[in-house]
Amino acid sequence: MAQIAQAPFSVPMSLGRTTARVLGLMRRVTATPAGLISLVVIVVLAVFALFAPWIAPYDPIALDPRLRLQGPSWAHWLGTDQLGRDVLSRLIFGTGTALRVALFGTGAALAVGLCLGIVSALAPRAVDNLLILICDAAKSLPMILFALAIVAIYGPSMVTLIGIIAFSMAPGYFRVVRNQALVLRSSDFVTAARAMGASPVRVAMTHLLPNLVGPILVLIAMDIPAVIGIESGLSFLGQGVQPPTPSWGTMLSDGYSFVRQAPHLAVTAGLPIVLATIAFTFFGEALRDALDPKSGKGR
Fold it and tell me: What's the N-to-C CA distance of the chain in angstroms?
């Protein structure tokens, strides 16, 4: 009877511990000015991405040739582009484009790398060597040339861009997960679980995966700036997100084309790329120090 009475409270208690750990982690991250400022910038970017239709003052694809290449004004705070579209509205909607590509790209890369890394750590030597060979071969491909080749075959689109990012970044996640899983595989609690008859799937889900969360979160935070740079770079070349979808890279390309007539276009398009890159990089460093305090003391 005592076990039956305690069972309904196990889930809330687990959720409470998880919430307390997350709040404690956020307190450690925001304990430094760099961590606090970077988190604020990331939250602002997330708000722009989620609530762009309500925040943006204008339709980002509405054309008004009469107002083309206008400078900042009370009506258009960041001016207009070569087609008379409001630059601020396009930047706000472009935030959603950049974060969608970053989240879906890193999410797909993480899913592939996580599965292959755990399988490689728990599988026999022959399977481990084969997976290492495949991932090393994929990682050795030149990123830009590979991306341009895939775009030439399948055409430029957001789906193609996400696939390129997932393929190019999955080997990095594979290496991190495999190395961590190999260390954990020889630990006492994993050995005890195997001795008690736990299956490889149970060992991976119950004992390996929870201990991989910290390094994976840090790696994701560090990789998001790279993904934003890839998306912006390919869009700048016309091989990424296609018009009229707002994209920071496309806007930067337009600003470069009209830099003499309207220099504000290039400045306003490049600024959010720089801010997002710095914010996610600093947040990743703060998260790393919060998860491993010794790394902060050693510097």
Answer: 54
Q: What is the pLDDT of residue 11?
A: 39
CB 37 within 8 A of CB 280: no
19: in domain? no
**Residue 185: its pLDDT value, please?**
73
Q: How many domains does the chain have?
A: 1
The answer to the question of residue 267 being in a domain is: yes
Mean pLDDT on 2-6: 41
How far apart (Å, rounded) are the C-alpha atoms in residues 17 and 143?
42
Mean pLDDT of 238-262: 87
CATH number of the domain that residue 129 is part of: 1.10.3720.10
Confidence class of residue 4 from pLDDT cuts 50, 70 and 90? very low
114 assigned to some structural domain? yes
Does any domain span residue 274? yes
Domain with 244, as residue range(s), is 27-297
Global confidence as pTM:
0.83
Model pLDDT for residues 123-157, shown as the tens digit of each residue = 888 888 999 999 888 888 888 888 888 888 888 88
DSSP string of the chain, one letter each residue = -HHHHHGGGHHHHHHHHHHHHHHHHHHHHTTSHHHHHHHHHHHHHHHHHHSHHHH-SS-TT---GGGTT----SSSTT-B-TTS-BHHHHHHHHHHHHHHHHHHHHHHHHHHHHHHHHHHHHS-HHHHHHHHHHHHHHHTS-HHHHHHHHHHHH-S-HHHHHHHHHHHHHHHHHHHHHHHHHHHHTSHHHHHHHHTT--HHHHIIIIIHHHHHHHHHHHHHHHHHHHHHHHHHHHHTTSSSPTTS--HHHHHHHHHHTTTT-HHHHHHHHHHHHHHHHHHHHHHHHHHHHH-HHHHHT-
